[in-house]
Design goal:
The structure holds two protein chains of two kinds.
Chain A: H1 3-26, E1 31-33, H2 37-41, E2 42-44, H3 46-52, H4 61-65, H5 69-76, H6 85-89, H7 108-115
Antiparallel strand pairs in A: 1-2
Chain B: H1 3-19, H2 29-33, E1 41-46, H3 55-63, E2 76-83, E3 88-91, E4 104-106, E5 112-114, E6 120-128, H4 137-140, E7 147-149, E8 155-157, H5 167-171, E9 178-179, E10 186-187, H6 193-196, H7 203-207, E11 213-217, H8 224-231, E12 234-235, E13 247-250
Parallel strand pairs in B: 1-13
Antiparallel strand pairs in B: 1-11, 2-3, 2-6, 4-5, 7-8, 9-10, 12-13
Amino acid sequence: MKNHVWRPLFVVLGLVAGILLFRLVYVPADFGTQEQGYTFGFHRLGNEQEWKDYPAKYKNNSYCTECHDDKVKSWEASAHAIIPCENCHGAAFGHPDKPEKLTIDRSRDLCIRCHAKLLMPSSGRNKIAGIDSEQHNAKTECVECHNPHNPSLEDM
Amino acid sequence: MKRRDFLKNTAVFVSGVSISLSALEFIDPKELLAANPKLRWGFLVNTYKCVGCGFCVKACKIENDIPLEAHVTRTWVERYVMTKSGETIRDCPNGALAGYTSKLLDENASGMRLVPDEEITQAFFVPKLCNQCSTPACVQVCPVGATYQTGDGVVLVDRKWCIGCGYCIMGCPYGVRFFHPIERVADKCTFCYHRISKGGNTACAQACPFGARQIGNLRDPNDPVAKAVMNERVGVLRSEYGTKPNVYYIGLNEEVR
C-alpha cells in the first residue's frame, strides 16, 4: 500500500500508546472497581484507609474519670449524667497535653439549649424542666446558682 | 472522513476506553451482593427522643473539621411545628448548631414568627444526615470516580480525586452534600468512618444525651439498630427516589420531607 495510508495508522498507534502510557503513570494502581462494582464502587482503594486514619477529636467520659474523678462522681449521680462531659467542655483533642485546659462555658446559651421552655408535645423536649430565659433570673449566669455537675434543686 | 477527523476521533475513543479499562476487571453481580456479608452500617434516629439541643451538630462540625461559622454542615436538626389550621412550619436556623432556644420560628425572608401555644397540635425535631443509600444517586453522577461506596456501605469522597464539579451536590435528593469551604471539594457525612471502623461511635451519636441517634450493623441480627429496623415501625425519607436509604426513623410523619 501507499505511504499516505500507513502514515495516519502510525500516528494512531502512537496516540494509543501515548494515552495508555499517560494512564499508567497518572492513575494509581489501586484505582478500579472495588467491592461494590462499577456503578458504585469505582474508586481509589487507598482512599478508604485515608478516611480511616482521619484524626479523632472526641474521646469519651471514661477518659475524664482518670483525672477529674471528683467532677465525674457528682455528675454520675445527677440528672445531668446523660450529658457527656465534652458536650459542655468541648472536644478533648490531646488534653491535658494539648490543650492544657478545656473550655469552661458559663454562658446561659449552653443551658437553654435544653432548658428553654418550648411547647413540643411530640418530643422529649417537653419532659425537661423548662424556664423562660427572659424571666428566670435574666442576666445572671445559671451556674451562679445551679451546679452543672449536680443540678438537683434540693442540693442548691 | 477527513484524516484530521479520523485522528481526532481515535484519540477521543482511546482515551474513553482507557479510562474505563479497569471496569472490565470483574463485574459479577453475585460477587457484589456477597461483597461484605457481615457488615453493613445503618443508622437509627428516634424523633421522639430528640430535644433539639444541637449538640450533635456541634460535635460533628468539630470532629470533622467543618468550620463552625460556615453555613454548611454534615448533619442538622429540623424543627416541625403543626397548627390546628393544618399548617406545617419547618425551620432550621444555622443547622441548629446552637440548638433551639426560642419559640420564634425562623421563616427566612419573611422574618420570625410566633405560633401561640394553644394553636400547636404536633411539634417535634428531626435530625438529618447522609442516608448512605444502597443505590446512591450522588455516586452514579460522579464523572471521575471520586465518590464511591465502601464494601460496608458508606459513601465517601476521595478528596485527592474530586474535581469539585458539584454534580453530586445537585444529584443528592436529600441535600446532604455541600462544597467544603477549605478543602475545596465536595463533602458529606462519612458516618465518622474513622471512628466506627476502629470500634467507636459516631461523634453525633456519642454526643446525643438522649440516645436519639444510634449507629449499628444491619447484617447482625443481635445489633440493637438491626433489631429496631426489623421489629419497630420505622420509615425512611423520600423512598420514592429509589435510592434505598439506610438511615431509619422512628416516629416519621408524612409532613417530614
